[in-house]
Please model this.
Amino acid sequence: MTGASSGLGRAVSLNAALYGAKVVLIARDSERLRLVREALPGEGHSWFSFDLQHVDAIPVLLSNVVATAGRPRALVHCAGICIQQPLRFIDQDSLQKTMRVNVESAFFLTQAIRHKQIRGERMSIVLVASVAAMLGSSSLATYCASKGALVAGMKAMAEELARDKIRINCVAPGCFQSDMLQQLGGSVGGKHLESLQAKHPLGLGTPDDVSHACLFLISHLSSWITGSTLVVDGGYSACK
Model:
Protein backbone atom coordinates (compact mmCIF):
# COMPACT_ATOMS: atom_id res chain seq x y z
CA MET A 1 0.00 0.00 0.00
CA THR A 2 1.71 3.19 -1.12
CA GLY A 3 0.74 6.59 0.23
CA ALA A 4 -0.34 4.69 3.32
CA SER A 5 0.37 7.36 5.93
CA SER A 6 -2.76 9.42 5.24
CA GLY A 7 -5.90 9.90 3.18
CA LEU A 8 -6.90 7.18 0.75
CA GLY A 9 -3.85 5.01 1.42
CA ARG A 10 -4.63 4.98 5.12
CA ALA A 11 -8.31 4.17 4.46
CA VAL A 12 -7.49 1.29 2.11
CA SER A 13 -5.00 -0.08 4.63
CA LEU A 14 -7.48 0.04 7.51
CA ASN A 15 -10.29 -1.52 5.51
CA ALA A 16 -8.04 -4.23 4.07
CA ALA A 17 -6.89 -5.12 7.57
CA LEU A 18 -10.51 -5.28 8.73
CA TYR A 19 -11.06 -7.96 6.08
CA GLY A 20 -8.11 -9.93 7.41
CA ALA A 21 -5.32 -8.86 5.06
CA LYS A 22 -1.74 -8.48 6.21
CA VAL A 23 -0.84 -4.99 5.07
CA VAL A 24 2.53 -3.54 4.09
CA LEU A 25 2.46 0.23 4.51
CA ILE A 26 4.72 2.40 2.32
CA ALA A 27 5.11 6.18 2.55
CA ARG A 28 7.73 8.82 3.30
CA ASP A 29 6.72 9.85 6.84
CA SER A 30 7.90 7.16 9.27
CA GLU A 31 6.11 8.65 12.29
CA ARG A 32 2.74 8.77 10.54
CA LEU A 33 3.33 5.26 9.21
CA ARG A 34 3.94 4.03 12.73
CA LEU A 35 0.65 5.55 13.88
CA VAL A 36 -1.26 3.93 11.01
CA ARG A 37 0.39 0.60 11.81
CA GLU A 38 -0.75 0.88 15.43
CA ALA A 39 -4.31 1.58 14.26
CA LEU A 40 -4.55 -1.51 12.06
CA PRO A 41 -6.53 -4.43 13.47
CA GLY A 42 -4.93 -7.85 13.38
CA GLU A 43 -1.31 -8.97 13.29
CA GLY A 44 1.48 -9.36 10.75
CA HIS A 45 1.46 -5.82 9.36
CA SER A 46 4.67 -3.96 8.52
CA TRP A 47 5.78 -0.59 7.22
CA PHE A 48 8.58 0.89 5.13
CA SER A 49 9.57 4.53 4.93
CA PHE A 50 10.35 5.23 1.27
CA ASP A 51 10.25 8.20 -1.11
CA LEU A 52 8.82 7.02 -4.43
CA GLN A 53 10.71 9.74 -6.28
CA HIS A 54 13.69 7.40 -5.93
CA VAL A 55 12.43 5.05 -8.64
CA ASP A 56 15.83 3.38 -9.07
CA ALA A 57 15.54 1.97 -5.55
CA ILE A 58 12.08 0.40 -6.04
CA PRO A 59 13.43 -3.12 -6.77
CA VAL A 60 15.38 -3.04 -3.50
CA LEU A 61 12.28 -1.84 -1.64
CA LEU A 62 10.19 -4.74 -2.96
CA SER A 63 12.93 -7.26 -2.17
CA ASN A 64 12.89 -5.99 1.41
CA VAL A 65 9.09 -6.27 1.48
CA VAL A 66 9.28 -9.91 0.37
CA ALA A 67 11.99 -10.68 2.94
CA THR A 68 9.88 -9.16 5.72
CA ALA A 69 6.29 -9.97 4.79
CA GLY A 70 6.40 -12.54 1.99
CA ARG A 71 5.27 -12.16 -1.61
CA PRO A 72 2.43 -9.66 -2.02
CA ARG A 73 -0.80 -10.68 -3.70
CA ALA A 74 -1.96 -7.12 -4.31
CA LEU A 75 -0.61 -3.61 -4.78
CA VAL A 76 -2.70 -0.48 -4.30
CA HIS A 77 -0.71 2.53 -5.46
CA CYS A 78 -2.25 5.57 -3.79
CA ALA A 79 0.79 7.85 -3.58
CA GLY A 80 0.57 10.98 -5.68
CA ILE A 81 0.96 14.74 -5.76
CA CYS A 82 -1.10 17.59 -7.19
CA ILE A 83 0.61 20.90 -7.97
CA GLN A 84 -1.81 23.65 -8.94
CA GLN A 85 -0.29 25.94 -11.56
CA PRO A 86 -1.85 27.94 -14.38
CA LEU A 87 -0.26 27.10 -17.72
CA ARG A 88 1.86 30.26 -17.77
CA PHE A 89 3.52 29.31 -14.48
CA ILE A 90 4.33 25.65 -15.22
CA ASP A 91 8.06 25.00 -15.01
CA GLN A 92 10.19 22.00 -15.84
CA ASP A 93 10.83 21.08 -12.20
CA SER A 94 7.15 20.88 -11.22
CA LEU A 95 6.25 18.95 -14.37
CA GLN A 96 9.07 16.45 -13.87
CA LYS A 97 8.26 16.00 -10.18
CA THR A 98 4.59 15.37 -10.93
CA MET A 99 5.41 12.82 -13.60
CA ARG A 100 8.02 11.12 -11.43
CA VAL A 101 5.69 10.64 -8.47
CA ASN A 102 2.41 10.03 -10.31
CA VAL A 103 3.59 8.08 -13.35
CA GLU A 104 7.16 6.80 -13.13
CA SER A 105 6.67 5.29 -9.67
CA ALA A 106 3.62 3.36 -10.91
CA PHE A 107 5.46 2.03 -13.95
CA PHE A 108 8.53 0.91 -12.02
CA LEU A 109 6.52 -0.57 -9.14
CA THR A 110 4.57 -2.61 -11.69
CA GLN A 111 7.73 -3.61 -13.53
CA ALA A 112 9.45 -4.76 -10.34
CA ILE A 113 6.48 -6.56 -8.83
CA ARG A 114 6.06 -8.64 -12.00
CA HIS A 115 9.23 -10.63 -11.28
CA LYS A 116 8.62 -14.22 -10.19
CA GLN A 117 10.75 -13.67 -7.10
CA ILE A 118 8.45 -10.83 -5.97
CA ARG A 119 4.84 -11.43 -6.99
CA GLY A 120 2.38 -13.67 -5.23
CA GLU A 121 -0.24 -15.84 -6.91
CA ARG A 122 -3.09 -14.19 -8.81
CA MET A 123 -1.57 -10.74 -8.33
CA SER A 124 -3.83 -7.69 -8.61
CA ILE A 125 -2.59 -4.13 -9.07
CA VAL A 126 -4.72 -1.02 -8.56
CA LEU A 127 -3.37 2.36 -9.65
CA VAL A 128 -5.20 5.38 -8.29
CA ALA A 129 -5.84 7.81 -11.14
CA SER A 130 -8.48 10.57 -11.19
CA VAL A 131 -11.48 11.74 -13.19
CA ALA A 132 -9.12 14.58 -14.13
CA ALA A 133 -7.49 12.08 -16.50
CA MET A 134 -10.62 12.13 -18.65
CA LEU A 135 -12.11 15.56 -18.01
CA GLY A 136 -9.31 18.02 -17.36
CA SER A 137 -9.35 20.94 -14.94
CA SER A 138 -8.10 24.50 -15.16
CA SER A 139 -4.69 25.15 -13.55
CA LEU A 140 -4.13 21.41 -13.11
CA ALA A 141 -2.61 20.59 -16.50
CA THR A 142 0.39 18.71 -15.09
CA TYR A 143 -1.80 16.68 -12.71
CA CYS A 144 -4.33 15.87 -15.46
CA ALA A 145 -1.54 14.87 -17.84
CA SER A 146 0.02 12.57 -15.25
CA LYS A 147 -3.24 10.82 -14.44
CA GLY A 148 -4.07 10.49 -18.14
CA ALA A 149 -0.70 8.85 -18.68
CA LEU A 150 -1.43 6.50 -15.79
CA VAL A 151 -4.72 5.34 -17.32
CA ALA A 152 -3.22 4.92 -20.80
CA GLY A 153 -0.19 3.09 -19.44
CA MET A 154 -2.36 0.77 -17.38
CA LYS A 155 -4.29 -0.28 -20.49
CA ALA A 156 -1.06 -0.99 -22.36
CA MET A 157 0.37 -3.01 -19.47
CA ALA A 158 -2.77 -5.08 -18.88
CA GLU A 159 -2.28 -7.40 -21.85
CA GLU A 160 1.37 -8.06 -21.00
CA LEU A 161 0.64 -8.71 -17.35
CA ALA A 162 -2.26 -11.06 -18.11
CA ARG A 163 0.27 -13.57 -19.46
CA ASP A 164 1.54 -13.87 -15.89
CA LYS A 165 -1.99 -13.97 -14.41
CA ILE A 166 -1.56 -10.45 -13.06
CA ARG A 167 -4.52 -8.09 -13.22
CA ILE A 168 -4.11 -4.31 -13.34
CA ASN A 169 -6.82 -1.65 -13.16
CA CYS A 170 -7.28 2.00 -12.26
CA VAL A 171 -9.65 3.67 -9.85
CA ALA A 172 -10.54 7.22 -10.94
CA PRO A 173 -11.95 9.19 -8.00
CA GLY A 174 -13.68 12.52 -8.09
CA CYS A 175 -13.07 14.95 -5.25
CA PHE A 176 -13.15 13.45 -1.78
CA GLN A 177 -12.11 14.66 1.65
CA SER A 178 -8.32 14.42 1.80
CA ASP A 179 -5.14 16.33 2.65
CA MET A 180 -4.72 17.03 -1.07
CA LEU A 181 -8.19 18.62 -1.25
CA GLN A 182 -7.46 20.75 1.83
CA GLN A 183 -4.24 21.97 0.26
CA LEU A 184 -6.11 22.81 -2.92
CA GLY A 185 -8.73 24.67 -0.88
CA GLY A 186 -6.01 26.67 0.82
CA SER A 187 -4.72 27.87 -2.53
CA VAL A 188 -8.00 28.55 -4.36
CA GLY A 189 -10.32 29.51 -1.50
CA GLY A 190 -13.48 28.19 0.09
CA LYS A 191 -15.87 29.45 -2.60
CA HIS A 192 -14.11 27.36 -5.23
CA LEU A 193 -14.44 24.27 -3.05
CA GLU A 194 -18.14 24.98 -2.52
CA SER A 195 -18.56 25.20 -6.28
CA LEU A 196 -16.64 21.96 -6.71
CA GLN A 197 -18.83 20.18 -4.17
CA ALA A 198 -21.96 21.39 -5.95
CA LYS A 199 -20.73 19.68 -9.14
CA HIS A 200 -20.82 16.28 -7.41
CA PRO A 201 -24.51 15.21 -7.33
CA LEU A 202 -23.85 12.93 -4.35
CA GLY A 203 -21.58 15.47 -2.67
CA LEU A 204 -17.89 15.11 -1.95
CA GLY A 205 -16.85 11.57 -1.11
CA THR A 206 -14.77 10.18 1.72
CA PRO A 207 -11.60 8.09 1.61
CA ASP A 208 -13.72 5.08 2.58
CA ASP A 209 -15.93 5.56 -0.49
CA VAL A 210 -12.91 5.22 -2.77
CA SER A 211 -11.18 2.55 -0.70
CA HIS A 212 -14.12 0.18 -1.15
CA ALA A 213 -13.63 0.35 -4.92
CA CYS A 214 -9.93 -0.43 -4.48
CA LEU A 215 -10.72 -3.42 -2.29
CA PHE A 216 -13.20 -4.72 -4.86
CA LEU A 217 -10.53 -4.62 -7.56
CA ILE A 218 -7.99 -6.57 -5.50
CA SER A 219 -10.54 -9.15 -4.38
CA HIS A 220 -11.68 -12.38 -6.04
CA LEU A 221 -14.97 -10.63 -6.85
CA SER A 222 -13.18 -8.85 -9.72
CA SER A 223 -11.20 -11.86 -10.95
CA TRP A 224 -12.30 -11.31 -14.59
CA ILE A 225 -11.56 -7.58 -14.67
CA THR A 226 -8.31 -6.16 -16.02
CA GLY A 227 -7.35 -3.13 -18.09
CA SER A 228 -10.35 -1.19 -16.78
CA THR A 229 -10.86 2.15 -15.06
CA LEU A 230 -13.49 2.27 -12.33
CA VAL A 231 -14.84 5.81 -11.90
CA VAL A 232 -15.85 6.64 -8.32
CA ASP A 233 -16.92 10.27 -8.35
CA GLY A 234 -20.40 10.76 -6.90
CA GLY A 235 -21.79 11.48 -10.37
CA TYR A 236 -19.34 14.29 -11.20
CA SER A 237 -18.31 12.97 -14.63
CA ALA A 238 -21.92 12.20 -15.57
CA CYS A 239 -22.81 15.87 -15.19
CA LYS A 240 -19.61 17.44 -16.55
